[in-house]
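note to self: dont lose this again. the chain is below, predicted strucutre after it. 164 aa total, dont forget to put it in the shared folder this time
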Amino acid sequence: MYTAAVITVSDKGFAGERVDTGGPLVAELLEAAGYAVCHKELVPDEQPLIAQALMHAADDLDIALCVTTGGTGLSPRDVTPEATLSVCQRMTPGIPEAMRAESMKITPRGCLSRAQAGIRGRTLIVNLPGSPKAIRENLNAVLPALEHGLEMLRGPKHDCAVEG
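---
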């Protein structure tokens, strides 16, 4: 079982003007997949605060999988991808590519997502959109592959070429 953190990025949620439905849904989906969600946080759409939350989850809490929800669109306040890029040491472009490909099967607006994914230390960081419908679609598109990625990132050393 891997640990997970869920970081909701929402100005209105942070100000108490909107109930956070995205974060709890992400936590529910991760727990159903066998992850131990041990950290949840709600931050405003402020790049330094998002970056700080990501670094805390990776550096201080040593979380295996850190999933953000919100702030991945085209609005001027949507800066989650920039915060993610600023803290990751290596990017994993296949994850957001797979999510966008799955979204494009459902709506042409799927191409508007600016979500990113990358690695900080031993933590995999994945950006999800904020809407519950899009959270389900995007997370379900990549969830089956994440465990193998985390095994490679955190697990015992093994040779993928031998596994076939």
